[in-house]
Amino acid sequence: MAKNKKQTAESDPLKRKRAKYADQVVNIGTGGESHQTRDNKTPGLTTQQGIPVADDQNSLKIGPRGPALLEDFHLREKLFHFDHERIPERVVHARGFGAHGFFENYDSLADITRADLFQRKKEKIPAFVRFSTVAGNKGSADLARDVRGFAVKLYTKEGNWDLVGNNMPVFFIQDAIKFQDIIHAAKEEPDRGFPQAQTAHDNFWDFISLTPESMHMVMWIMSDRAIPRSFRFMEGFGVHTFRLINSEGKSTFVKFHWKPKLGMQSVVWNEAVKINGADPDFHRRDLWQAIQKGDFPEWELGLQLFDDTFADRFAFDVLDATKLIPEEDLPIRRVGRLVLDRCVGNFFAETEQAAFCTQNIVPGIDFSNDPLLQGRNFSYLDTQLKRLGSPNFTHLPINAPKCPFHHFQQDGHMAMMNPNGRANYEPNSWTGHTSGPRESPETGFHSFPAEEQGSKLRMRSESFSDHYSQARQFFVSQTPLEQRHMVNALVFELSKVESSEIRIRMVSHLLNIHKDLAQNVADGLGLREMPEAADAAKPPKTDLKKSPALSILLNSPKSFRGRKLGVLITDQVDHTVFQALQSAVNKERATLEVIAPKIGEVTAANGSLIEVQQTVEGAPSVLYDAVALLPSEDGAKTLANMRSARDFVADAFVHMKFIGYVHAAAPLLDIADINNDRDGGIIALNGRKSALQFLESCRQLRFWDRTESTKG
Ligand code: HDE
To answer: Mind listing the domains of the chain with CATH numbers?
Structure first.
């Protein structure tokens, strides 16, 4: 039988083909002498045990068509390792993206804290930051309407300090005992396993409508803060009140803030939905590209510092994580900057294995009694054991301190750093290097000796019972446009709720926040009758002053820096206009991406070649902050017949983007039904001056005046 003819390794056709590429073997070893490939240039492939591999294409068999052999340790090792590649994803904040950088202190803060990182002016310490969404799984899309995690690990000289914050300064609940419930309610409904990464479903709004303390946070997640344009353009908050302790043991309360240097910016909802389809990795790609390009994102660390007197006078409890302290009441002191300047080399090793723990604080920083924070201090350590599988997760390079550390904790799975020597307990009477480390009574961590007393109770403090006043303050502090976005968001979310009872219950809460908000949402939901306002544990205050700092639009950066212009071109593009745009974009320190019907290159009218980065099909205008249309006359006719090109223009218009255009692009504007004469956001381009003017307009980020006509 021909098939059973004796076949040698040399006669194997696959082998002959692969031999051609034998020199391109990639090394996964970690240094030292490695086995060499034939050309002696690239390191040789080995097993995990370091055994050189001769054949990575075929398993070991009896004859070419025979059964596989159990002794094939190479095959078994590959199968075994692959089977165990996954670790449990985070229960919340599963989808995230991290980067390395540093924190630089502006000035010594020795008068308020003895934390080592704040002692010396201009000192830089390494940092790792992971941004995330909360509800979706690891593979969900970046533009979900959601809170964003903003977790910062600072590798100080006195240990790691993890400030595990969010991009919103308040939270849904006041007590850690409700965390599991809010998260269960927000995630997929357990019977059907959907919806993914969305709060627009019955369980979430059922829980919320039965939890008045969530109302302030609901205002935040229904606002544009929940659909940021980029991680780079969002604020971060430590949320809880913490303490700073100086060398005399004096305590100052503190709230931590991260202020983005590039200013805040969000997308509009219709855009978010489309971005999720066009580029589900929009946020991670944005951060990756910015860092790779050398445009390093930066935030300033801000402190709100206060004492007991302020805390006692403040209208709310500073231990209640559903409340914030308006910046206008207590200004923020900017004390340093966080710069992200290096992408991870391996996503799993760094971003996925990063283990943030709220209990990681350093001498000079301490907790407050915020009941949410107290619960978190248990939960994070516990969750790392589940996820990373060993109490030695601190040995992983991303989690290990970068300062010296010595202790008697030993063994366990994957122990990589057991100390040498005899003593593994303390006290011991050994001396010298066998004795092991000793306590530092003066300089070690001391908890702030806060006076505590009281009966053992399960109860919420009366001072936590105002659930609506700051929700109202947030709403009235928004511009009318932002308020409309909030109304639209609530109508969208609640219209996905099947139970009319839940929808009505939500409107009854909104009545306690603001009459117009409730009325507009009720109208949007088609409610025939307005319900009674929900019973409020405490009557809402209606006299809290507006806090302009809470609005994104009132704090617009007036800069296009770090943003992206999408330029749609075709063959015969006017090279002068293109060049003028390119140099105006460079001047603004923004990015220009070229889009054309086909990838590769286009030939400009002057014969030069322009590199194309994206096709019209693959790069809808939702991926850009502003767009410019530079087709030739023939090109515009071709584009006008392409659905994707028409959507490109129409969407840019509806999403209130600035649109630059050359005269030849007129058919494209026509077909998208855009009247450029009546819209100041549509700007003619014909050379250097107009390109500069266009970029100057783009600094407003959006041409919001258009919303009146488009109801965006
Ligand atoms: Fe978290 N949270 N959380 N959380 N949280 C986790 O830890 C938890 C809360 C936040 O990029 C988990 O490693 C409880 C507030 C961020 O790796 C878990 C409570 C804030 C991240 C956990 C809260 C946060 C997490 C899941 C209520 C803003 C991602 C996996 C008491 C200040 C960190 C993990 C990263 C992650 C518990 C509430 C922020 C289960 C019990 C409030 C940014 O431990």
So the answer is: 2-83 (4.10.91.20), 96-179+229-395 (2.40.180.10), 558-710 (3.40.50.880)
